[in-house]
Amino acid sequence: LPVSRLVSLVGSKTQIPTQRYGRRPYGVGLLIAGYDDMGPHIFQTCPSANYFDCRAMSIGARSQSART
User: Looking at the keywords, is Protein biosynthesis present (predicted)?
Assistant: First the structure.
């Protein structure tokens, strides 16, 4: 299973609560790392179910200082 497909499935799963009235979205962001035929990947998923392919990423309370 390619990493990008896994992240797409996670994004689809977390998007369902954002589309229905009265359901709360998951309030968590994830960093998913993996390796496939294209090389290493790091993906960030947001609580809004968006996901991004990154070269380097940090999330959390001090993430801005880690990025600089």
Answer: no
The token pair at 16 is: 């369902």
What pTM value is reported for the model? 0.73
C-alpha span between 52 and 55 (Å, rounded): 10
How many other CB atoms are found less than 10 A from the CB of residue 27? 6
Cβ(35)–Cβ(41) below 8 Å: yes
Give the Cα separation of 67 and 12 in Å (integer).
Answer: 28
Rounded Cα distance, 29 and 46, in Å: 5
Q: Residues 16-51: pLDDT tens digits?
A: 777 777 777 777 888 999 998 889 999 998 878 788
Secondary structure E strands in the chain = 30-36, 39-45, 51-54
